[in-house]
Amino acid sequence: MDTLLTPAFGTVFWASIAFISVLVILRVLAWKPILNALESREESIGKALLEAEKAREEMANLHANNEQLLSEARLKRDAMLKESRDMANKVVAEAKAKAKIEASKEVELAREAIQIERKAAVAELKSEVAQLSIDIAERLLREELKESGKQKDLVDKLIQESTLN
Amino acid sequence: MIKGLFKRFTLTLVLLGLHQLTIAQAEGEVNIDNSDHSTHETHSHHSHTEGEHSEFVPGDFIIHHIADANKIHFFGEGADEISAPLPMIIYVEGEGLDVFMSSAFKSESESHDSHAPSTAQGPSTGVLYTKDEHGITGKNENGELVEIWDVSITKSVFGMLLIITCIILLFTRVAKSYSRNPGLAPTGMTNFLEPLILFVRDDIAYPVIGKEKSKKFLPFLLTTFFFILGCNLLGLIPFIGGFNITGTIGVTIILALLVFIITTINSNKHYWGHILWPPGVPHLIKLIVVPIEMLSVFIKPTVLMIRLTANMSAGHIIILSFISLVFIFNQNFGTGAGIGIGVFSTLFMIFMYFLEILVAFLQAYVFTLLAAIYFSEATQEPHH
Questions:
Q1: Integer CA distances (angstroms), B304 to A55, A134, B181, B281, in order
Q2: Do residue A14 and residue B22 have CB atoms under 8 angstroms apart?
Q3: Which of B157, B169, B221 is most worth mutating to test chain A (most A CB atoms within 10 A of its CB)?
Q4: CA A89: distance to chain centroid?
Q5: Packing angle between helix B283-333 and helix B335-379, nearest 10 degrees?
Q6: Long-range CB contacts (< 8 A, 24+ apart) of B267-276?
């Protein structure tokens, strides 16, 4: 029984050598590398998790951005389409208006030309007619005034008439 | 605060009382043992002459199985005993060093009792060594007692060397596996040991000492944990000699001493302030508290030592007691009773074995946890 309760010198001797040497050896060869490896692995896992979270957030952001861009693009496209349609309409309308004006101008010009031509024609006709009538009148008068009595009558009559005027 | 101190005070008293009690009991038992042994010897001698089996003495049987020895005893008793001898290394003061195998010890009295005194001659010094249940004594040629230092590789020392070799090989391999595939998931042995390492780190060191301060103490805590666990588990393997390394006080005293040394080296002003001049305690009570606190510095590691030794020995004693029951009943009430009790004992031993596996882990955990608590107390920064 006393051997159980009193530490034997040999046991104490070997236990101290054995335990201290195992402590020193494991401290250098095992615990340091193991604890460092564990810590660095934990860090890297933590970092990886954080990064994954970040990446997911970024993806979500990107998705939202994409959506926004798409909707913006759609709006822009619509706006552009509308604008171009409007422009086309406007161009067509302008062209139409211009053409109308042009056409009416042409017509006006033509009318004016026609008017001028007509006037000229009428004037020519008038002068023609006047010449003709003078010629006729000359011939008539010549025929009429071949006799002197008649000439005298006519003069009188004309005088008469002119005084009345 | 006062309540806590009072609690600690009563606890200390109880522990001191227990300690005294165990010592007293031990001394008493030694005496009984001695007288027992003498009767036992004559008895065995007597029975030997009659050619009968020696009487079974459970106390001796158990003590001899849990005590340290100079051989690894596999099975059999007396002449049928099968055991492996261990090297004896004895330094004789003024004479020199003797190294020989323990098988050199021969019993004089041709007795079948393997625990009877036996002698061996030192090969280089010529000193005559006598081994009995009290240990080894040496006498020179003139028959005078000489001062000897016995540093033999006993059963516990052998087991301890076995365990530390295993631990060193195992953990250097584990460390290599970390450097071989850094950042990858552990595989094989590493996968099995990593949870235990993480358990010591995350459930003992970090919460008790704190993450930053525990860096300094982790190598000691991890080594202690795995050393105690390995020794405890080795003691549970049957047919290899029933190692009781952590139940050997010479081993646990070193663990406790290291805890004490590390605590004292790392202790700060705050720690000693609380011991020598506890704040917030009336001066008169300080007269009581201060000596107790001073004593507790030594009691704490002592308790660590006693707890581990007693727990591990107790487990072995219980299992051996159930084995003894079979022989006692066989001897006193016949073979039938022996077989009947054998069935009952075996069932109980199976249960005890499971309990012992739990205790092996539990005691390693408790020792490490308490060491961590003492370290944290010594390094605690003032917080008020």
A1: 52, 164, 39, 28
A2: no
A3: B157
A4: 13
A5: 160
A6: B267/B378, B267/B379, B268/B378, B268/B379, B268/B380, B268/B381, B270/B380, B270/B381, B270/B382, B271/B377, B271/B378, B271/B379, B271/B380
Q: How many domains does chain A have?
A: 1
d(CA B370, CA B307): 11
User: With b meaning 16 or more CB within 10 Å and e meaning fewer, what string describes B304-313?
Assistant: bbbbbbbbbb
**HSE-CB for A42 with a 13 A CA cutoff:** 9
Tell me the C-alpha distance between A139 and B287, whole Å. Answer: 178
Q: Does B166 touch chain A (CB under 8 A)?
A: no
Nearest by CB: B175 against A5, A21, A30: A30
Paired tokens of B46: 């007597």
- The answer to whether B154 contacts chain A (CB < 8 Å) is yes
Q: What ipTM does this complex have?
A: 0.79
CB spacing of A12 vs B254 below 8 angstroms: yes
The reply to whether residue B197 touches residue A34, judged by beta carbons under 8 angstroms, is yes
Taking CB atoms and an 8 Å limit, are A2 and B134 in contact across chains? yes
pTM reported for the whole predicted model: 0.72
> Which residues 293-352 of B have a C-beta within 8 angstroms of A?
313
Question: For the segment B320-334, what is each residue's pLDDT rounded down to a tens digit?
Answer: 898 888 888 888 888
Quote the mean pLDDT of chain B.
Answer: 81
> pLDDT (tens digit, 9 = 90+) per residue, A14-27?
999 999 999 999 99
Residue B204 near chain A (CB below 8 Å): no
A35 touching B (Cβ < 8 Å)? yes
Q: Around Cβ A156, how many Cβ atoms within 10 Å?
A: 10
Q: Where are the domains of chain B?
A: 69-150, 155-379
Domain that holds residue A20: 2-164
- Cβ-based neighbours of B130, under 8 Å, separated by 6 or more: B117, B118, B119, B136, B137, B138, B139
